[in-house]
DNA sequence: ACTATATATGAACATTTGTTCATATGTTTA
DNA sequence: TAAACATATGAACAAATGTTCATATATAGT
């Protein structure tokens, strides 16, 4: 957990005490918070780094658009070139190309050139497992 | 795969043939597409339903915002009431409440009332497993 | 019943995001 | 080397999303 959030949290504790004219002791907390300071520290320690959580959100952002999900879903089956993919999904070449770039930057897909055409495929097994995990949840 | 996309795809095949003054045969395809019609049908069959893919994108949308990821990350550790959570994460009560509603509607978290306060927690094991899956990928 | 506390929500606003359109880049073939 | 083909990309626009501010609802305590 980021030090900023924690500092903010602690400052809230102090100001809450100040408002009520109470003295803050190490393991005591203001009434509007139901966690003790010690519990809050413990909780914060058990959370991943703030930075990691931002990266996690960024990863899931890639799967958070139906066009990208459909692209990944097709590439799960087989490698495809841009025009085939566009025709298959019924979207414009431009829109697809923009999304392919985004997915490529996120390292979820890779591509190789074969003459005039460029073939895209999933980058690795991890992508497949993330996809399947979500699919399991959606399909109950 | 949605019938609409497939119909669109087939229509593209036909128009491509028409433009070139060729006749379209069952298993032949225009040169700008590297898939045969049969391959395209095969591929489409192996993809989940279009509707399922939209639901999948919606599911991942929940994890695609850093505030929501941080909320879920805290609730993984323990049940928390709104004000504790807001203080812990350093966000306003209002912003948090809006996000809690979104997560609740998506059935990723649940809540129970205890007097004045309302305690939130993760809805089920699936949420934890989706979270962990993404975390594994991010942390390499 | 009145006040304080805890949470929820509607509207306005700013930001982000995805698509389209026009055009650029890069590769093959005539 | 010119033309055709396959893909990429910048800019403009529209739509979706998250936060803030003000206020509403609901419960507990006096």
Question: What's the helix and strand layout?
Answer:
Two copies of one chain form a homodimer.
Chain A: H1 3-19, H2 37-46, H3 50-62, H4 66-77, E1 80-81, H5 82-89, H6 93-105, E2 109-114, E3 117-122, H7 125-138
Antiparallel strand pairs in A: 1-3, 2-3
Chain A binds a DNA duplex (30 and 30 nucleotides) through residues 31-32, 61, 65, 67, 81-83, 91-102, 113, 115-118.
Task: Give a written overview of the molecule.
- The structure is a homodimer of 140-residue chains.
- By secondary structure, the first copy, chain A, is mostly helical.
- Chain A contains seven helices and three strands.
- Chain A has helices at 3-19, 37-46, 50-62, 66-77, 82-89, 93-105, 125-138, and strands at residues 80-81, 109-114, 117-122.
- In chain A, strands 1-3-2 form a three-stranded antiparallel beta sheet.
- In chain A, a hairpin with a 2-residue loop joins strand 2 and strand 3.
- Chain A is elongated.
- At the A-B interface, helix 1, helix 2, helix 3, helix 4 and strand 1 of A face helix 1, helix 2, helix 3, helix 4 and strand 1 of B.
